[in-house]
């Protein structure tokens, strides 16, 4: 069936919406607007399909759409800010799985129609393979981030042989599906893709997991693009390509921010090079203080830099932190927030969290912009962050985060860490900055501690 001209124009508008949305998401100021524009494009595309195509089984499709909408809306409203990476992993996996299922259905149809073309079969095979890898890998990343399984790398004896065998078998089945097109071979390829997706993510642990989510997101985009070719839907082709390209660029940027190659992120644990996750609390002596002591440091400082991290999100202390910063600003102190590219667990995580507390965008400084200012800073207040200020990334070649660019908090005159305990960060290694003579630790829940700190500063 030929797509009507009005529908082609509608698809064009939707594609433009997706491109404008990606542009908007590149800036905290425009991210909300970009998100809304992208959602509007998706709604327009879905509505166009219903009116432009002859749809069989309309009732079950509408029921499935309604059920999916309810699940998605409830999930989005209930998810905590700290669980956003898990939500992204789940949504990403669902997209890959859906593309693979559609490809299997189309495979059955084109076999029944007779004389399928090799390019069409190659696109179908590619969609099944990449879609199932993305689905299985995303489910494992969700389980790791949600701590339903260990977040540490999982490697077993013979893993390299098992992974190699799964990779070769999957590629062989994908290639064989073109000349020997049968539904059973397609199902075998899907099962092999699921196994390969699990084996791909198992050795990844600690701070590397969010990077793999981004990689799998790129996989899903490519699978959707290939399914667009199979379904002869240009909009799917365009949207999938945009997601694939954006996911690939984000993966490269995150890997660069961690100072690691993608190969090292995926397979570094096989030779001890992965970030580990977990870890044991240190019992080395540190200098600690109470809220009143730290309030004096902050109250009489001329320059303060805040380094927010995942712990801030866990404690939901962003609003109290914003109140503390406002009081310091009223006292004439210059205060900025230093944002590491992978602060939290994903790029933009801290920006969204602080935007929720109405922190002005002008106070958020990227790493390259803020790093030269640490030497002139009186106090750095580290709230729930750890690995992004760990000097081991620059000084210890054996450290798993060696090479990762860090916020140079160690160059400031005084550093105050707000921590619950002496447990290491997501990378699972000790932070030597905690034991420096210029460092003070303020133990406790970040929200409760910041409230006491706020009261103490007001009392000065």
Automatic annotation (TrEMBL):
What Pfam family is a match for this entry? Answer: PNTB
Q: How does it sit in the membrane?
A: Multi-pass membrane protein
Q: What does this protein do?
A: The transhydrogenation between NADH and NADP is coupled to respiration and ATP hydrolysis and functions as a proton pump across the membrane.
Name under which the protein is recorded = NAD(P) transhydrogenase subunit beta
Instruction: Tell me a Gene Ontology molecular-function term this record carries.
Output: oxidoreductase activity
Q: In the record, what lineage is assigned to the organism producing the protein? A: Bacteria, Bacillati, Actinomycetota, Actinomycetes, Propionibacteriales
Give the transmembrane ranges: 6-22, 34-52, 58-77, 89-111, 123-143, 155-177, 183-202, 209-229, 235-255
Q: Does the keyword Aminoacyl-tRNA synthetase apply?
A: no
Q: Where in the cell is it found?
A: Cell inner membrane
Q: Which reaction does it catalyse?
A: NAD(+) + NADPH + H(+)(in) = NADH + NADP(+) + H(+)(out)
Q: Which organism is it from?
A: Microlunatus panaciterrae
Report the EC number(s), separated by commas if there are several.
7.1.1.1
Residues annotated as domain NADP transhydrogenase beta-like: 8-455
Annotated coiled-coil positions are none
Q: Where is the signal peptide?
A: none
Q: What is its main location?
A: membrane
Uppermost EC category: translocase
* Family of the protein in this entry: Belongs to the PNT beta subunit family.
Q: Which UniProt keywords apply?
A: Cell inner membrane, Cell membrane, Membrane, NAD, NADP, Oxidoreductase, Translocase, Transmembrane, Transmembrane helix
């Amino acid at each position: 069936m030929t797509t009507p001209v009005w529908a082609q124009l509608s698809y064009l508008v939707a594609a433009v919406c997706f491109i404008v949305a990606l542009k908007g998401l590149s800036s905290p100021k425009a991210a909300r607007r970009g998100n809304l524009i992208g959602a509007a494009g998706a709604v327009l595309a879905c509505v166009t399909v219903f009116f432009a195509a002859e749809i069989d089984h309309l009732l079950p499709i509408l029921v499935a759409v309604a059920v999916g909408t309810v699940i998605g809306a409830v999930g989005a409203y209930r998810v905590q800010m700290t669980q956003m990476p898990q939500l992204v992993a789940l949504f990403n996996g669902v997209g890959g799985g859906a593309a693979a299922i559609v490809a299997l259905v189309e495979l059955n149809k084109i076999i029944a129609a007779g004389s399928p073309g090799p390019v069409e079969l190659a696109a179908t095979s590619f969609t099944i393979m990449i879609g199932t890898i993305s689905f299985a890998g995303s489910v494992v990343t969700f389980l790791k981030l949600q701590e339903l399984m260990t977040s540490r790398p999982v490697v077993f004896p013979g893993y390299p042989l098992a992974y190699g065998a799964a990779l070769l078998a999957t590629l062989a089945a994908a290639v064989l599906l073109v000349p020997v097109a049968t539904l059973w071979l397609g199902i075998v390829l899907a099962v092999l893709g699921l196994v390969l997706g699990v084996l791909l993510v198992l050795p990844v642990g600690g701070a590397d997991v969010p990077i793999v989510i981004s990689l799998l997101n790129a996989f899903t985009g490519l699978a959707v693009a290939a399914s667009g070719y199979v379904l002869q839907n240009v909009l799917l082709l365009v949207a999938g390509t945009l997601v694939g390209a954006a996911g690939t660029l984000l993966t490269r940027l995150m890997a660069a921010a961690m100072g690691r190659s993608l190969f090292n992120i995926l397979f570094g644990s096989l030779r001890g090079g992965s970030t580990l996750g977990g870890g044991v609390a240190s019992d080395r002596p540190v200098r600690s203080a109470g809220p009143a002591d730290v309030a004096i440091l902050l109250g009489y400082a001329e320059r303060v830099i805040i380094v927010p991290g995942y712990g801030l999100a866990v404690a939901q202390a962003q609003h109290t932190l914003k109140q503390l910063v406002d009081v310091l600003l009223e006292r004439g102190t210059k205060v900025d927030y230093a944002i590491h590219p992978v602060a939290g667990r994903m790029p933009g995580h801290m920006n969204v969290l602080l935007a929720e507390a109405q922190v002005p965008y002008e106070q958020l400084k990227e790493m390259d912009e803020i790093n030269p200012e640490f030497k002139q800073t009186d106090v750095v207040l580290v709230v729930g962050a750890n690995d992004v200020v760990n000097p081991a990334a620059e000084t210890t070649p054996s450290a798993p985060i060696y090479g990762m660019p860090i916020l140079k908090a160690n160059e400031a005159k005084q550093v105050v860490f707000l921590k619950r305990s002496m447990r290491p960060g997501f990378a699972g290694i000790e932070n030597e900055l905690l034991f420096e003579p210029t460092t003070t630790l303020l133990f406790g829940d970040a929200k409760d501690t910041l409230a006491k700190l706020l009261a103490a500063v007001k009392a000065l």
